[in-house]
Amino acid sequence: MSSVIADVVEIEAVEPHPNADRLCLARIKGWQAVIRRNEDGSPQFAPGEKVVFIPPDSTLPREMAERLGVATYLAERTNVEGGRDLVVRRVRLRGEPSFGLVVRPDDPGWPVGTDVRGHYGIGKYRPPVRFSAGDAEPSHPLFQKYTDIENMRHFPDVFAPGEEVVVSEKIHGTNARIGQVEGTLLAGSHGLQRRRPEPAAMGANTYWFPATLEPVQNLLDELRQQGHAVVILYGEIYGSRVQSLHYGRRDGLGFAAFDLLLGDRYADYDDFAACCARHGVETVPLLARGPFSLDWIAGLSRGKTTLADQHIREGVVVRPVRERTDPRVGRTILKYLSDDYLLNDKLAATDATDL
């Protein structure tokens, strides 16, 4: 699950709303927010103006929401602890997506980049968790969880313009890992290691299912025999048993790999792809490879899935051709979820909520 980011930013651009004379479209980082026009027809906020941007899925205390005059724009939802939160919504206003709230800073002297979460009491909405932890077991310290991927809309400049990147389709399923760790076969979800079932039951166990696939077995065995003490293959398990978007898997499960850890280092994309291709391991669809631009990524996030069935595309995952890190996000890999997905509350509410 990505972080909550709430800081002082500058409005990058303001454009007319195509379907409403009294509204405008403001661009903030990688987000679009609908704002009002003033009585004289000027935009409520101008390009270059410093504002506080509170992104979707943030929470606000009721007193603060009422003081800012935004309480009517928030949704009341049950949180992971069973309480109720006021949550910043994602909506369409006269046909245009609007994400987050734009407010004037309480202190006009705050510089751009000031973290205002503490000042406004802004938190991250955590929906109720869908537990399936009956087969959980203590995690091996080397059986590493997958990278927490940040939202590119918060960090649109992590990739340099023109930098070569790989863009893969983000599949709406459940995150899984299967690995050979110091000679032991292990499996798990993103957050939990799962106890190994009896052989006859392995294919019916969601998180041990990849271990029954011969291509996956061969890949893990080859890399172990090459001397790697830790080999972890990460992927998405999908199908009607997992999520409402089934990608043609109305019965049974599918597995698509998206990353490979060898020791303590993730493989470069080309090495990962070549290894999976050599053994016939299905990978998440590669949508494009080329010079980075935010508009290009936004365009790739839209449309239908490239897998079976005509589902919407959840979004994309973007990574450099060669592994690197960034001081703001750590490992450089970001997601960009499509507008259609973000505006579908039923789908987006299930994102990263199962253990």
Short structural description:
This protein is 14% helix and 33% strand. It has helices at 62-68, 117-120, 214-225, 269-279, 294-301, 339-342, 345-348; strands at residues 7-10, 13-16, 23-28, 31-36, 50-54, 58-59, 74-78, 84-88, 90-93, 96-99, 101-103, 123-124, 136-137, 150-151, 164-170, 174-181, 184-189, 193-194, 230-238, 254-262, 265-266, 286-291, 315-320, 325-326, 330-331, 334-337.
Topology readout:
Layout: E1 7-10, E2 13-16, E3 23-28, E4 31-36, E5 50-54, E6 58-59, H1 62-68, E7 74-78, E8 84-88, E9 90-93, E10 96-99, E11 101-103, H2 117-120, E12 123-124, E13 136-137, E14 150-151, E15 164-170, E16 174-181, E17 184-189, E18 193-194, H3 214-225, E19 230-238, E20 254-262, E21 265-266, H4 269-279, E22 286-291, H5 294-301, E23 315-320, E24 325-326, E25 330-331, E26 334-337, H6 339-342, H7 345-348
Parallel strand pairs: 14-26
Antiparallel strand pairs: 1-5, 2-3, 3-4, 5-11, 6-12, 7-8, 9-10, 13-18, 15-22, 15-23, 16-17, 16-19, 17-18, 19-20, 20-21, 23-26, 24-25
